[in-house]
Design brief:
This protein is an alpha/beta fold. It is built from six helices and 25 strands. α1 packs parallel to α3.
């Protein structure tokens, strides 16, 4: 039985930052994740995707963000159970919880935090009759390594941030980039829409709006696509390509966590955002993309904020007779959080106990 103060389900960015916030309060943490490595979607789905809304980083790759978070939490020595899925949650007589994984590993803690992102994923595939025939033969639903598309002709379909960001990014990698969207208006960030439009004017992106990829052609591998316009007066476009990447998002599934008794709304866990991000099960919190509440923004930085607030209330549950008020953190050449002298980066916590 693995015992800890806070058991975190999900080792993505929000889960990892929770370790830091808990560490400031001298609370021990352990993380469970079904993936064999930390980082969640950032490591598994798009490690090379640039992220632009992390404070102090004008741009950082998703995989690099995971590495930086691991570096940040290293002094707190969290535990990890990776490659195992959290299956069951059982409340004990003493008020603590036992979480058992699909491989039978048991974990016990007074606080459980669900930070599992959007759960497990399946790509949303366009309705093209033979698309399955070209999967891994020119068709992909996520981009892990953009170097795969070096000097290739690439067609991206989609109208959200992912499609826009990758189309922009690949202009410096691929020999030709085409972006296809079934509407005139994009759903992505205004800055990304403007960048893509400017690149289209410069001839670096072939932009097809009010259109969709309707046919795929090739023998052993994808050779070409047919782009059909929704405007009946516009002729079809036959385009020779090496790769087709439909980025229509991923369909999330909560998995076993959805059977733990939470209040669920649109495949997300309802929490009390007015106070502490606690679920309807006292002692169990949900933070990051997995939760929902009025005004929720599914951003990594929102998950970071929720982690900080949640840890304050978790401390009060674990230590009901103690008062801890965090004032500020800083960096200096003094003792580390654990009281040991460190040669490298030092941290100071100013608090009132």
């Amino acid at each position: 039985m693995i015992k800890t103060d806070i058991l975190i389900i999900g080792a993505g960015p929000t889960g990892l930052f929770t370790v830091f916030e808990a560490g400031l309060l001298k609370l021990k943490t352990h993380l469970i994740d079904a993936l064999p490595q930390v980082g969640g979607q950032c490591s598994e789905i798009y490690p090379k995707k640039p992220i632009y809304d992390i404070p102090a980083y004008p741009e950082i790759l998703a995989g690099e963000l995971s590495d930086k978070l691991m570096e940040q939490i290293k002094p707190f020595e969290p535990g990890f159970t990776l490659g195992e899925r959290a299956e069951t949650l059982e409340k004990q007589e003493d008020g603590s919880f036992v979480v058992t994984t699909n491989k039978g590993t048991q974990h016990q803690a007074p606080i459980v935090v669900v930070a599992g992102g959007l759960g497990s994923f399946e790509p949303r595939k366009p309705k093209i009759e033979n698309i399955v025939d070209f999967e891994d033969k020119g068709v992909a639903y996520i981009i892990k390594d953009p170097e795969v598309y070096r000097d290739k002709k690439v067609v991206i379909a989609g109208g959200g941030d992912s499609a826009l960001d990758w189309a922009i990014f690949l202009t410096d990698v691929a020999s030709e980039v085409s972006l296809v969207h079934r509407r005139n208006e994009f759903r992505g960030a205004l800055d990304s829409v403007e960048k893509a439009s400017e690149l289209a004017k410069l001839g670096k992106i072939k932009l097809y709006t009010k259109a969709e990829v309707a046919e795929l052609h090739g023998k052993d591998n994808l050779d070409a696509v047919v782009i059909k316009s929704t405007d009946v007066d516009v002729e079809d476009v036959y385009l020779e390509v090496d790769n087709f990447i439909p980025l229509f998002g991923l369909s999330p599934k909560l998995g076993p966590i959805g059977d733990w008794g939470f209040e669920i709304e649109k495949n997300a866990i309802k929490v009390n955002n007015a106070k502490d991000y606690q679920t309807n099960i006292p002692g169990v919190f949900a933070i990051g993309d997995v939760n929902t509440y009025p005004g929720k923004l599914k951003l990594i930085l929102s998950g970071f904020h929720e982690a900080a607030v949640m840890c304050q209330f978790a401390y009060q549950i674990i230590n009901p007779n103690k008062r801890f008020v965090m004032k500020y953190t800083t960096v200096g050449g003094v003792e580390g959080f654990d009281g040991s002298k460190k040669e490298a980066k030092k941290e100071v916590v100013k608090s009132i106990l």
